[in-house]
TrEMBL record:
It comes from Parnassius apollo (Apollo butterfly). PANTHER family: 39S RIBOSOMAL PROTEIN L33, MITOCHONDRIAL, LARGE RIBOSOMAL SUBUNIT PROTEIN BL33M. It comes from the Eukaryota. GO terms for cellular component: mitochondrion; ribonucleoprotein complex; ribosome. Keywords: Mitochondrion, Ribonucleoprotein, Ribosomal protein, Transit peptide. InterPro entries: Mitoribosomal_protein_bL33 (IPR052008). The keyword Nucleotide-binding does not apply. This is Large ribosomal subunit protein bL33m.
Length: 67
């Protein structure tokens, strides 16, 4: 690889936006996490069932330059 190719490469962004989905009802929302972090799993209020439920990261939506 030529040195010019290494100098012209774009730096990857630090954060990404991901789609979170409820394991119970299928309710979805977007969250932001660091690119190098593990996949998100969290407890959050689900408006469909009106209780807390487990949300898991389903897919990456886009990169975000800064938070």
């Amino acid at each position: 690889m030529f040195i010019t190719n290494a100098l012209l490469k774009k730096a990857k962004s630090k954060y990404i936006m991901v789609l979170m989905e409820s394991a119970v009802s299928g309710h979805k929302f977007n969250a932001i996490r660091e690119r190098l972090a593990d996949k998100l799993e969290l407890l959050r209020y689900d408006p469909y069932i009106q209780h807390e439920s487990l949300y898991k990261e389903r897919k990456k939506i886009r990169s975000i330059k800064s938070k």
